[in-house]
Specification:
Elements (H helix, E strand, L loop, with lengths): L6 E2 L32 E5 L4 E3 L11 E2 L4 E2 L28 H33 L26 H6 L11 E6 L6 H9 L4 E5 L3 H6 L9 H11 L6 H4 L42 H4 L7 H10 L2 E6 L9 H4 L6 E7 L2 H10 L5 H8 L14 H6 L7 H25 L9 E5 H6 L1 H11 L6 H10 L17 H6 L1 H4 L2 H18 L7 H5 L12
Helix pairs in contact: 10-13, 11-13, 13-19
Protein name: Sulfotransferase
InterPro entries: Carbohydrate_sulfotransferase, Gal/GlcNAc/GalNAc_ST, P-loop_NTPase, Sulfotransferase_dom
Pathway: Protein modification; carbohydrate sulfation
Length: 538
C-alpha cells in the first residue's frame, strides 16, 4: 500500500442509479453499467477511514466480457471498516478481444483446401479413365468384316485380357557344372582337351594342385576336405580362393599365369585376356606362346568365368566320390560327375614311366595307406636295385605303392555307383579311356549329351585327329596325337609279369566291375591279338 497522498490511476465509469427498496444496504451501489469514460481519482488515507475524492469508493478494474463486448464491474464493496487500509494488487488492463475475422479467415482457407483436394481427385480419375484405353481420334473407323461362317466362329479377345495372358519370359539358363573324376595317368589330359577346346566351356586343369603344394607334406586323405572346399568356391567362380593357397610368397598376388596349367588353358591364352589365340577356334595351343601372355588379375579371369554357362574342372586329387557328396547334394550347383577310368595296369605303367615327375604326389598317396592291411611285397630286393630296365628302382616302389590307395578308393566309388543314392542318380557317368581312343566320335557324343553340350564338326574332327597319331608319345605330360592301339596295349610290353600280378592283386575289385580281365601267364600278356576288355557292369 502506497503512503497517504499517493495518486493512482484507475478507470472509473459513471455512477449507476441506486436500486429501489429491497436493494442493498445503505452505502452500497450497483456498478454494473459500463463506464462512460475514464476519470482519475485520488485516494487519500484519512483517519480511520478511506474515502475517494470523487465521492465513490475505490475498486479495481473489472475485466471485460469478451463474448458480450461490455464492461462488467464487480459488486460495490461493503462498508469500509475503520482501521488501517489493506493493500490491494493492481490488475492489468484486460487484453484486446479476439476478432471473429480470424476464425472466418481460417475457415475459408480450410474450405478452399478441401475443394482443391476434391478437384485433384476428380482430375486423377478422369486421367486414369482416359489412358485406360487408347484413343483413336484421327484414324478412320475400321472396315466392316464379313460375317464368319457358323462352323468357324470368330472371337476377338480384348486387349487388356490378352496382355494379362502373355507367355512368361523364359527362365535364365541354368549353369552346367561338371567334375572330371579320375586319377593320374588315366588319359585325363587328353580327355580334358575335349572341354578345353570347346568355345562354350570354361575349363580348369587340376586346380587342387595348389592345395597339395601349399599343405605339403600332408597325406592325401587329410587333404580331401580342403580340396572339396576349393571346388565349392571355384564352381561359384570365386577364383580368389587361389590366393589362399598361393606359394609365390607373402605379399605377392597370384596372377592368371600362376594358376596350374595356365600355359595350356584356352581361356587364359585367348582374347580378351591374351591376344595369342581365339577361344572359338578349335585347336591346341603352344605353351611357349601362352607363357608370353601378359599376366592378368584373377578378377578379370573371374569375370570371364561368369560369362560361360558350362564350367568343367578336371582333377586327380579327389580319391573318393563320397567327398563330393555335399556338392552333389547342393541344389544351387547341380553338379555332374564324369568318372574317367583306365586299366590299372596301364595306369601303373604310365606312373612308372613318369615316376620322377610324380615322386612328390606318390609319397603323399603312400602315406595314406592303412598300416593294418596285409600287403604282398611289391618287388624283391634284387629287382628294386638292379632291374631298372623293367621299371625297377626306388621310385617304382612309391609309384606302385600308390596304386594300392588309388584302387582301394576306386573300389569304394564303384560300389557307391552300383547302388547309387538319390544324390548320385542321373549325375554320374563312367567313361573308359579305352573306349575313347578306340571310338572317339561315339564317346564324345555320349559325354557331350550327358552334360547338355552340342558336338560340333570341329570337335569331332579334333577328337578323331588326337587318336590317329603316328605312335605312342614318349613325353608323359604332353597331350599329342597318338595311335589308339598302342595307347591301349602299351602296358603289356612295358611291365613285367610280376608287376602285373602285383597290380592285379591291388586292383582286382575295380577291374572286375569295369571289365578289365586278368592274365594267367606271361604268354597271354604278350599275345596282343587277344583283347583283355569286356563289357563293364556299369
Amino acid at each position: 500500500m502506497r503512503a497517504a497522498g499517493t495518486r493512482l490511476e484507475h478507470g472509473l465509469g459513471s455512477r449507476a442509479q441506486p436500486r429501489q427498496a429491497g436493494g442493498r444496504a445503505a452505502g452500497a451501489r450497483d456498478w454494473a453499467s459500463p463506464p462512460a469514460g475514464r476519470e482519475k481519482c485520488q485516494i487519500r488515507r484519512g483517519k480511520g477511514s478511506l474515502l475517494g475524492i470523487c465521492g465513490q469508493p475505490p475498486r479495481p478494474c473489472a475485466p471485460c466480457d469478451v463474448m458480450s463486448n461490455s464492461w462488467r464491474w464487480p459488486a460495490a464493496p461493503a462498508l469500509l471498516l475503520a482501521g488501517p487500509a489493506v493493500p490491494r494488487p493492481l490488475l492489468p488492463w484486460p487484453p484486446a478481444p479476439l476478432s471473429m475475422k480470424v476464425f472466418r479467415r481460417k475457415a475459408l482457407v480450410l474450405c478452399l483446401g478441401y475443394v482443391l483436394l476434391l478437384l485433384l481427385t476428380m482430375l486423377n480419375l478422369l486421367d486414369y479413365k482416359w489412358h485406360k484405353e487408347p484413343q483413336q481420334c484421327n484414324e478412320p473407323p475400321p472396315a466392316r468384316r464379313a460375317p464368319s461362317s457358323p462352323q468357324q466362329p470368330h472371337f476377338q479377345p480384348r486387349s487388356d485380357i490378352r496382355s494379362l495372358y502373355r507367355p512368361p519370359a523364359p527362365p535364365p539358363r541354368q549353369r552346367q557344372l561338371v567334375y572330371v573324376f579320375t586319377t593320374w595317368r588315366s588319359g585325363s589330359s587328353f580327355f580334358g582337351e575335349l572341354f578345353n577346346q570347346n568355345p562354350e566351356v570354361f575349363f580348369l586343369y587340376e586346380p587342387v594342385w595348389h592345395v597339395w603344394q601349399k599343405l605339403y607334406p600332408g597325406d592325401a586323405v587329410s587333404l580331401q576336405g580342403a580340396a572339396r572346399d576349393m571346388l565349392s568356391s571355384l564352381y561359384r567362380c570365386d577364383l580368389g580362393v587361389f590366393q589362399l593357397y598361393n606359394t609365390a610368397g607373402a605379399g605377392k598376388n597370384l596372377t592368371t599365369l600362376g594358376i596350374f596349367g595356365a600355359a595350356t588353358n584356352k581361356v587364359i591364352c585367348s582374347s580378351p585376356l591374351c591376344p595369342a589365340y581365339r577361344k572359338e577356334v578349335v585347336g591346341m595351343v603352344d605353351d611357349k606362346v601362352c607363357k608370353k601372355c601378359p599376366p592378368q588379375r584373377l578378377s578379370l579371369l573371374q569375370d570371364e568365368c561368369l560369362k560361360y554357362h558350362t564350367l568343367v574342372i578336371k582333377g586327380v586329387r579327389v580319391f573318393d566320390l563320397a567327398v563330393l557328396a555335399p556338392l552333389l547334394q547342393d541344389p544351387a550347383l547341380q553338379l555332374k560327375v564324369i568318372h574317367l577310368v583306365r586299366d590299372p595296369r596301364a595306369v601303373a605303367s604310365s606312373r612308372i614311366k613318369s615316376r620322377h615327375g610324380l615322386i612328390r604326389e606318390s609319397l603323399q598317396v603312400v602315406r595314406s595307406r592303412d598300416p593294418r592291411i596285409h600287403r604282398m611285397p611289391l618287388l624283391d630286393a634284387s629287382h628294386k636295385l638292379n632291374s631298372k630296365k623293367e621299371g625297377g628302382g626306388g621310385s617304382d616302389y612309391h609309384a606302385l605303392g600308390a596304386m594300392e590307395v588309388i584302387c582301394s578308393s576306386m573300389a569304394k566309388t564303384l560300389q557307391t555307383a552300383l547302388r547309387p543314392p538319390d544324390w548320385l542318380k542321373n549325375n554320374y557317368l563312367v567313361v573308359r579311356y579305352e573306349d575313347l581312343v578306340v571310338d572317339p566320335i561315339k564317346t564324345v557324343r555320349q559325354v557331350y549329351g550327358f552334360v547338355n553340350l552340342v558336338v560340333s564338326p570341329e570337335m569331332e574332327k579334333f577328337a578323331l585327329n588326337m587318336t590317329s597319331g603316328p605312335g605312342y608319345s614318349s613325353k608323359p605330360f604332353v597331350v599329342s596325337a597318338r595311335n589308339a592301339t598302342q595307347a591301349v596295349s602299351a602296358w603289356r610290353t612295358a611291365l613285367s609279369f610280376q608287376q602285373i600280378k602285383q597290380i592285379e592283386e591291388y586292383c582286382h575289385q575295380p577291374m572286375a566291375v569295369l571289365g578289365y580281365e586278368r592274365v594267367n601267364s606271361p604268354e597271354e600278356v604278350k599275345d596282343l591279338s587277344k583283347t583283355l576288355l569286356r563289357k563293364p557292369r556299369l
